[in-house]
Amino acid sequence: MPSSVPAAPQPAEPVSPVSVTEGAVEHSVDFIRPHLRAHAATHVALYAGVQINGAPHLGTGVLQTAAFLLAEAARDRLGVDAELRFGALDNAPCQTRLCPRTGTLYTRSYHHAAGPDRILELVKRFYSGLFDALSAMTGVPYTVETYTRQQRTPAFREEFLASLAQWDRLRFTLAPSSGHVPISFPCPRCGWLQKHGENTELLAFDGSRARFTAVCLDHGRHEAEVGPRGDAYVGLTTLHRNVVKERLAAREAALPVIVKGADWAAGCRLLDEAHLCFPGGRPPARFLTPVVLSASGAKLSKSLMRQGKAELSPDTPPWMLDATRWEGTTQEYASTLHRLVSLMLSAPEHFERGYTTAEVVRLLGRTGSGPRG
Ligand SMILES: [Zn+2]
After folding, report:
1. CATH for 88
2. If you measure from the C-alpha of residue 372 to the centroid of ligand 1, how many angstroms do you get, rounded to a whole number?
3. How many CB atoms sit inside 10 A of residue 255's CB?
4. What distance in angstroms lies between residue 91's CA and the mean position of ligand 1's atoms?
5. Which pLDDT belongs to residue 54?
6. 153 partner at 20 to 30 Å CA-CA among 56, 103, 146, 227?
7. Does the pLDDT value for residue 44 go beyond 80?
8. Residues in Cβ contact with 121 at an 8 Å cutoff, skipping those fewer than 6 apart
9. What total number of domains does the chain contain?
C-alpha cells in the first residue's frame, strides 16, 4: 500500500450544456418528489443492481455511489427515511454450451455453477468494502439480496404468474419486434438452461399455478411447476425479470425508487409501458445515473473489454476498468467515487449526461487515480 500522502487534486468542474429540465429541476433527487406526494410516502427504498460476473468497472461504481448519494439527498432534502437495496444478479450466465444436436444455446448461472457460498464471496470481494464505506459516509443503510433468494419467495412467484395473466399484451411490450419473451427453467439435475427457451412450453396455467416443460441438453425433458411455493427456479430475460422485480418492490411499505444507468433509458421506456399492461399498474419512480464512456462514446462494458473492443483513451488508469486494480485503500476508493459523483450531482445538467474516462481523469485531478505515491 502506498504510504505517501496524495497530492491535493486540482479543482475541476464539469462543463455541461443546459439540460432540458432547466428551470424544472433544481436537484436531481427532486425527480421523485411527485411520487412521494402521490403516495404520502415517508420512507423510500432505492433499488440498484450488483453485477457479479467479473470485477466491477468505474461505471458500476458511479451508479452505486449515486444510489447512496441520492438516498442521502432524499433523506436530507425531501425529509424521508431512505435505504438502499442491492440485488445481486447471481442468475447471470457463468458458463455457456451449444447443444451438439440442435445447435441451441445453453447457459449455467453463477448460482448453479458456483453455488451460494461463492456468490457471497464475490459480493464481499467486489462490493462489501465500498458499500460499508459509502454507508458510513452517507448514513444510508443497505442490504444485498440475491436473485436466487428473491425468485424463491411466494410474492415473486405471484408477480411472475400475474405477468403470465397479461401475457398477450405484455410480451409485445417487452419484445416489440417479435413478441417472443423466453422463459427458461434450469434442469433440476444439472442447472443448465436453454437461454432462448426454444423448447419451453406452458402446459397449464390457472392464474395461481403454471406448469411448464423445458429441455436439458444432457437430461432431456423436465417439468417445472410454479405456484406460490415450490422449487422450480424461474429464469427470466432482463426486461421481464425487471418488471416482475419492480412490481414486487411496489408491495413493500417503503416507496420503491429504481436506480439504473442512463443506458437503460430505452429499456425503462419498455418497462414503464409494461407496468401499464397490468390492471391498475403504474411505473415506479426512477433515477437514471450518468454513464461512463470509452473514447468512442460506447459505455464501459465488460463484454467489450473482454473482446478488446473497449477503445479506451491511453490515459485511462487501469482501476477504471477493473476496480480490483485500485492501488489505495477501499476507503480512498470510496472517497474518490464520492467526490466524483458529488460533482455530477452538483447540478442537474451535470447528472443528465455521460462522462468519458478521460473527462473523469480531468475531474479527479492530477492522476485521476487517488493515491499513487
Ligand atoms: Zn440436466
Report:
1. 3.40.50.620
2. 49
3. 24
4. 17
5. 86
6. 56
7. yes
8. none
9. 1
In a domain, 102, yes or no: no
CA of 148 to the centre of ligand 1 (A): 18
Look at residue 36 and tell me if it is in a domain.
Answer: yes
Find the 186 Cα to ligand 1 centroid distance in Å: 8
H helix runs in 204-312, sequence order? 238-249, 265-275, 302-306
SS3 185: coil
Using the mean position of ligand 1's atoms as its centre, give its distance from the Cα of residue 102 in Å.
15
CA of 248 to the centre of ligand 1 (A): 30
Q: Is residue 370 part of a domain?
A: no
Q: Using alpha carbons, select from 149, 150, 151 the residue that is nearest to residue 226.
A: 151
CA of 316 to the centre of ligand 1 (A): 43
* Model confidence at 310: pLDDT above 80: no
pLDDT digits (tens, 9 = 90+) for 111-169: 999 999 999 999 999 999 999 999 999 999 999 999 999 999 999 999 999 999 999 99
Helix or strand (DSSP H, E) at 209: none
Q: What percent of the chain has pLDDT over 90?
A: 84
Report pLDDT digits (tens) over 345-370: 999 999 999 999 999 999 998 544 54
**Domain span at 149:** 28-94+111-175+239-364
Q: Span 74-98, mean pLDDT?
A: 97
- Ligand 1 center–CA 187 separation, angstroms: 5
Measured in angstroms, how far is the CA atom of residue 95 from the centroid of ligand 1?
14
In a domain, 209, yes or no: no
CA 96 to centroid of ligand 1, rounded, Å: 13
Residue 218 Cα, ligand 1 centroid: separation in angstroms? 5
> How remote is the CA of residue 68 from the centroid of ligand 1, in Å?
41
pTM: 0.93
